[in-house]
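Homework help board

Subject: predicted structure for assignment chain

Our instructor gave us this sequence and asked us to write out the predicted structure in token form, then describe one feature. I got the tokens but I'm not sure how to describe them. Can anyone check?
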Amino acid sequence: MLDGEPIGFYWGVDPSADSMTIGNLAIAMMVRHFIDHGHKAYLLVGGATGLIGDPDGKNTERDLKSADEIADNKAKITEQYHKVFAGQAFEQVDNYDWFKDMGYLSFLRDIGKHVPMRQMLGREFVQNRLGEKGAGISYAEFSYVLIQAYDFLELHRTHNVSLQVCGADQWGNCIAGVDLIRRLTGNMAHVWSAPLIVNMTTGVKFGKSKGGAVWLDAAKTSVYKFYQFWLNVDDVGVESYLKMYTLLSQAEIEQTMAEFLQNKGSRAAQKRLAYEVTSLIHGQVQADKQKRIAEALVKQSLVDLSEAELATIREELPTVNLTDSGTDIVTILVSSGLASSKSEARQLLADRAVYVNSISVEQPQLKDEQFQDDRLLLRRGKAFRDTVLVERD
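My token output:
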């Protein structure tokens, strides 16, 4: 079907939050390829469905968002659509437009009459919520699947959309739309689902950091943390992430992987991944900036960084300001959180697990010659994320 004449397809995001995550981005990158192959994209922002909230995968009822929150979230999701799909042809739609004037009785007679209860009750999340240990489910959340199914029907009727693209967790909602189209029009529609991405090393859902989800909005996940997330992905999955999350050609990915496999310690694949994804979402200027910061942290030298780049490091790393160069390293380790107690800090020094500008140290006092332009980097162990910036006036 996809190799034939161009078709209309759609992909939707509910504005339950004011940003997409890198989970959404994985599907968005697949949608880009559909567009590149000549298919007509309809990108839906769920102004109506967002007012209810998708119950699938939730153990309890969602808290309802206000209309103002949904409007604000829609605007921000729209901005991200235009960033991720910059230069590509697509039409944006909002399901609130066709639901806002629809009468309740009309919806029940024209749509609800054609949806079997057995189909809706058979959904796994409904069974879990209605089970003995379940929290129950409201009529509103129970009806969510019917609302989404109508989206597919509406786009099929008005724009000849015959395919919905989704993540695997949306399969049930999408199939309900396929069935509704068949029942009301006699036409065939399809679903293209992508499996949820799993960290191949840990087996858990990909896209989580210490602070939770990795967002596309820099106000929720800073550009620094965004870049560092990609820079620290696992070796096993990095080739797959390059294929899914970048626009690199197959030849470019193969070349990057060949360089990486010759020396995994270079992390060439992770560096290319971090740069490409950050460029796509936050722009090349930001990607260049984060690349220089990352290189400085690896070299454990800040002398080549600009004031703006130093300001970013101060925002992102624990920072200790000294009154003189004789401050005890033990005190710095504890105050910055790199050690839980002074005894642990002393043990780290004894074990040569403390580094000043990448050089292992044992002495408990900082020295003048260790400072570069009145600052240095103090690190616990070999993980660059366990680094503190030390500055003196």
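Reply (TA_rk): Your tokens look well-formed. For the description, you could write something like this. Residues 67-84 form the longest helix (18 residues). That's the kind of observation they're looking for.
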